[in-house]
Amino acid sequence: MELVYFTLVSVALYFLADWILLWIEAKLGRRFEQRAVVFMFLLLAMAMTSFWIIRLIAD
């Protein structure tokens, strides 16, 4: 069941990271030069946090 949780959360985090990146760029009024790096940092930070929380809840 953990695999299902990780998969669903991963998909949701992907779209959330994209939305956050677009929101930040809209607030700044420009696109980031290294957009992929910023996106991956956002996704990694959110994934590590949420997967840690899932592990705490599932165990």
Q: Could you describe the 3D structure shown?
A:
With 59 residues, the protein is mainly α. The chain has one domain (2-58). The chain has two helices and no strands. α1 (2-28) runs antiparallel to α2. The longest helix has 27 residues, at 2-28. The chain is elongated, with a radius of gyration of 13 Å. 2% of the residues are buried. The model has no long low-confidence stretch (mean pLDDT 93).
Q: How many domains in all?
A: 1
Low-confidence stretches: none
Number of helices, where a helix is a run of at least 4 consecutive DSSP H or I residues: 2
The average pLDDT value, as a whole number, equals 93
Helical amount = over 70%
Largest sheet data:
none
Structural class given helices, strands, pairing?
A: mainly alpha
Order of helices and strands: HH
Give the strand tally: 0
Beta-strand level of the residues, as a percent range?
under 5%
Radius of gyration: 13 Å
Q: CA-to-CA gap between the ends? A: 12 Å
Shape: elongated
Outline:
With 59 residues, the protein is mainly alpha-helical. Helix content is 86%, strand content 0%.
Task: Note the topology.
Elements: H1 2-28, H2 35-58
